[in-house]
Design goal:
Bound molecules: nicotinamide-adenine-dinucleotide
Largest sheet: 8 strands, parallel
CATH class of the largest domain: Alpha Beta
Radius of gyration: 19 Å
Number of strands: 13
Shape: globular
């Protein structure tokens, strides 16, 4: 498989996934409704695509002889609650288009990420198992359960090679997050370096599962390339590190002692409270060898180093 289409390619995850895929020898066609980051053009051929336009998608799949699709176009959790109809259109209609075109045009493999938002208030919150109660209360979460189930239906019905992984909050030094409930865990680093203080939009003891971007990229490529005959499941929990804003602030203070955090919870608190605190990824470990490489300490060092370079600021070591 060589020619890969990435949708939502101007977003947080794609902008780091595309260079990594290109370095592995894939020929990447990137696509979004927004312009791509400049660096991405070194690694891919960009074409504008609104995933709600099924025929435009089909044209691109034909023109570039697409063999695999990584479907990252999405409206994330917080933005989805602000505009549920937009989220329904992009996340649900967009997914239907991708799966239908993939099946009709003989695309070999689809990876479409899910999220911990696919879980809901009645899901067990600690070490949430791979197979458990899924009754989310956000439109984003509902669209992710639909992603998992419709993708798995296409596997059973049409033999399409669909794969999905439930990302926790993704923490990256390169790109800003796109309107999710875990965005505090990225914003805090920018504010710690630039202003030495941060007002967090969830309460200090809100434990949430997170993952450093290098882990996210490894998990995505590993699952995309996993031998199909080893996969019993098609949707996988992937865990990184679980922590609260208070725990993260304490770790940051080891490097920036004057850093202060305060808390002003908003509507995102309710979304955060409906999600797991930690997740069990044994199934991903067993079926395709997943393993997270970052501790909280590693994550803080990685973010402060990378962001300090980016923001050209100096941070003292402990
Ligand atoms: N970043 C996270 O913390 C996180 C966590 C869990 C799951 N995910 C999932 O990972 C995937 C990628 O997320 P991300 O963080 O890169 O999101 P993002 O918001 O940064 O990027 C999504 C991209 O989709 C594009 N888009 C929106 N509407 C579109 C449309 N109609 N047609 C084409 N493109 C459109 C946007 O312009 C944006 O560039 C999504 O499926 C998301 O749900 C992300």
């Amino acid at each position: 498989m060589k020619n890969i289409l990435v949708t939502g390619s101007s977003g947080q995850i794609s902008s780091e996934l595309i260079p990594a895929l290109s370095k592995r020898g894939y020929n990447i066609i990137s696509s979004d409704i927004r312009d791509p980051p400049k660096e991405e053009l070194e690694y891919s051929t960009f074409t504008r695509l609104d995933v709600t336009d099924r025929e435009a998608l089909r044209q691109i799949v034909r023109e570039y002889q697409i063999e695999g699709i990584i479907h990252n176009a999405s409206i994330l959790s917080a933005k989805g609650e602000e505009n549920p109809y937009l989220a329904m259109n992009v996340n649900i209609r967009g997914l239907e288009n991708v799966l239908t075109v993939a099946h009709e045009e003989n695309v070999q493999r689809i990876l479409s990420p899910s999220s911990i938002a696919a879980f809901g208030p009645s899901t067990p919150k600690i070490d949430t198992p791979n197979d458990t109660i899924m009754r989310p209360t956000t439109i984003y979460g509902i669209s992710k359960v639909y992603t998992e189930l419709l993708g798995e239906y296409f596997v059973l019905k049409f033999g399409l090679d669909f794969r999905s992984l439930r990302y926790p909050g993704i923490i990256s030094a390169k790109t800003l997050p796109g309107g999710g409930t875990t965005d505090w865990a990225v914003e805090i680093f920018y504010k710690a370096i630039e202003e030495k203080k941060y007002t967090c939009f969830v309460k200090p003891d809100t434990m949430m599962p997170m993952m450093a971007m290098p882990d996210c990229i490894n998990a995505t490529i590993q699952l995309f390339e996993a031998p199909e005959d080893k996969l019993i499941h098609r949707t996988f929990n992937v865990a990184g590190i679980s922590f609260t804003p208070q725990m993260l602030a304490e770790e940051i203070k080891k490097h920036i002692p004057e850093f202060i955090i305060d808390y002003k919870p908003d509507y995102r608190q309710q979304i955060a409270d409906s999600w797991p605190k930690s997740i069990d990824d044994t199934v991903a470990k067993e079926e395709w060898g997943w393993e997270s490489k970052f501790s909280l300490e590693d994550l803080v060092i990685y973010m402060l180093d990378e962001l300090s370079k980016k923001l050209k600021s100096t941070v003292s070591s402990p």
